[in-house]
């Protein structure tokens, strides 16, 4: 999995959202989910048609353009040889970002949020809805086999936050883990990353909840091509580093 870091001088979850057709996605939200207060997108995440001229440097992953703050790392998550997500790492915190297609007529975060909560509870975890900077979100505890500091071997519950924003024909979901999942001060940088993402939905027809197509950035492709050719790699805008720590998937 390529890893990038922005220099100052210049798998925890699997997909908990199952595929569904338009009729299911446009149905009534699941009972108990409750109506959320749509925060809108006056300050992001942005659609490619309304992104401001903010001068921010973003990593071009195709359907997602992800900002890279100074000192942060970006890992491209690959599954079955396809790029499926980007994970931004800030010290002891991480934000995994997925983009999905959504119906034209309505958002899907209310329904998806309830499904994630149900799945976590059935798997021995916990989830509670609360208000956050992007509207309704989930404060969760996710089962993991990896013990934390001072903990015994066996299944443990790791704190996490699920955030989501409905856009025009797309839905952006973030999974925040580590210190940022419980400490608002630690979360600010990663919240700004999520807020600064630009979604390039494109005009192609896609089933609701299909993952938006992502790709490796050109810096990574050029770096790998130079390595295979045995040449000294050209310095990319975002310097490629060694593989970072794993984020465990829950199945």
Q: What's the topology here?
A:
Layout: E1 3-5, H1 22-25, E2 46-47, E3 58-60, E4 64-67, E5 73-79, E6 82-90, E7 93-101, H2 109-122, E8 126-132, E9 135-144, E10 156-167, E11 170-178, H3 184-196, E12 198-199, H4 218-228, E13 239-241
Parallel strand pairs: 2-12
Antiparallel strand pairs: 1-5, 1-13, 3-4, 4-12, 5-6, 6-7, 7-11, 8-9, 9-10, 10-11
Short summary of the structure?
The protein is α+β, with helices and mostly antiparallel strands and 251 residues long. The chain contains four helices and 13 strands.
Describe the structure.
It is a single chain. It contains four helices and 13 strands. It has 251 residues and is of the alpha+beta class. The chain has a domain of 162 residues. The strands form two sheets. It has a nine-stranded antiparallel sheet with strand order 8-9-10-11-7-6-5-1-13, with helices on both faces. The chain has a four-stranded mixed sheet with strand order 2-12-4-3. The C terminus is likely disordered.
Shape: globular
SSE succession: EHEEEEEEHEEEEHEHE
Radius of gyration over all CA atoms, rounded = 18 Å
**Total helical elements:** 4
Strand order, largest beta sheet: 8-9-10-11-7-6-5-1-13
Q: Main beta sheet, described? A: 9 strands, antiparallel
Q: How many E strands?
A: 13
Protein structure class? alpha+beta
Task: Pick out its properties.
single chain, 251 residues, alpha+beta, 9-stranded antiparallel sheet, disordered C terminus
């Amino acid at each position: 999995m390529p890893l990038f870091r922005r220099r100052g001088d210049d798998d925890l979850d699997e997909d908990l959202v199952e595929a569904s057709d338009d009729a299911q996605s446009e149905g009534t939200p699941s009972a108990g989910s409750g109506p959320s207060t749509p925060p809108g997108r006056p300050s992001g995440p942005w659609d490619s048609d309304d992104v401001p001229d903010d001068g921010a440097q973003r990593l071009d992953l195709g359907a997602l353009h992800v900002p890279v703050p100074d000192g942060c790392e970006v890992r491209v998550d690959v599954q079955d040889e396809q790029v499926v997500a980007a994970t931004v790492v800030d010290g002891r915190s991480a934000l995994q970002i997925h983009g999905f297609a959504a119906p034209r007529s309505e958002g899907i975060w209310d329904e998806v949020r309830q499904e994630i909560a149900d799945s976590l509870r059935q798997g021995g975890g916990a989830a509670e809805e609360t208000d956050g900077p992007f509207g309704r979100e989930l404060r969760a505890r996710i089962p993991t086999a990896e013990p934390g500091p001072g903990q015994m071997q066996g299944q443990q519950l790791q704190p996490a936050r699920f955030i989501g924003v409905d856009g025009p024909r797309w839905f952006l979901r973030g999974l925040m883990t580590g210190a940022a999942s419980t400490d608002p001060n630690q979360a600010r940088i990663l919240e700004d990353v999520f807020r600064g993402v630009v979604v390039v939905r494109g005009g192609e027809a896609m089933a609701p909840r299909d993952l938006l197509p992502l790709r490796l950035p050109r810096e990574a492709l050029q770096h790998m091509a130079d390595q295979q050719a045995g040449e000294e790699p050209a310095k990319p805008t975002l310097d490629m580093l060694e593989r970072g720590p794993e984020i465990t998937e829950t199945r």
